[in-house]
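User: If only I could read backbone structure tokens as easily as an amino acid sequence. Underneath my words sits a plain record pairing an amino acid chain with its backbone structure tokens. This is the protein in question:
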Amino acid sequence: MGAVWLASDTLLSRKVAVKQATSTVDLTPEAAREIRDRAMREGRMAAQLNNPHAIAMHDVALDSGEPWLIMEYLPARSLAMALNIAESLPPDEVVQIGAQIADALTAAHTAGIVHRDIKPGNILVADRGSALGMVKISDFGISRAKTDTHEENSAVITGTPAYFAPEVARGADPTEASDVFSLGATLYTATEGQPPFGIDADSIALLHRVAGGRIIPPRKSGPMTATLLHMLEPDPARRPTMAEVRTRFVTLAVGKNGNAGSVINHPLRAADGQVPFWALRGSRVPGTSRRGERIHGRTMTGLPAADTATPLDRVPRPTAASTTAAPGPAPRPTYSPPAFETKEPKSFTAPAGLPLYLAIGGAALLLLIVLLLVL
């Protein structure tokens, strides 16, 4: 939320990212105060995080009453941009992204912070410099501390619908379990090429699908499938913690006896041991497509919560798509002409009991009428 600018810190001689929160111009004093308070909350919460996979918060400043967040600048490509280059990513690369982001979110949850807007556009992969290939999560713009007593209207929700947890779509307060679902939805999007509830330009229709809790079964997530399905459980009580997610992804990446640091503290590596091509600065980014914009997802405010009757603990657990081997080559299609109804010509039968001469005379009269019409 809000515009982000690249700026120079003249005091410390470094580049920084400066984010302007929503402008307070033309707002009522109460609304302007809420914007400033929200910016201060974000700054305070982000400043609590000291994790190599979370964008660092340097300062919060007020300029003529307008709040500005001064953050670490990371020359990077977002996961959403990567999905415009490669429509889906290999599971062995996505599992490394998952491990690094889960590490940052574990630290956030330990500090009592819920992110609330995890999506491909908020996951950054450094595309040059000494941090090349490292992954960080950004934009705690709508995050909240569990101890934050600020009142919100539970019937109105904020975030990106495609990555909402079902309970959030129904109007429940976001929790750590909601973050787990949103991270699962984001990683699912990376491996499958679309969000778990599909792509829909109609945010309200999408919101209702999310509230129903039934995802599209994953087909391309390989060894990540079981963990993703656990993260995408409709019932938040069934989901793993973020720390458990981190452990599972590390195990998938290096095995049970592998070195976790080789995943958490090192750049992403493709199967050839190099940084993936889509993360490199020189890799070509096609013109933004409508699909790309939808994958990115816009943070939205004022969405009405969906009212769904089925309790989440009764929604069937998500399953993977069938992995049954496809049958052999299909037989060559044959053409079958459409069946037409054949009607027999109607015959004339003289009514029973009529004299023969009347029947013959009637037939002759009918024939004469036909000849006159033709001539």
About this structure: The CA atoms of residues 18 and 337 lie 68 Å apart. The chain has a mean pLDDT of 80.
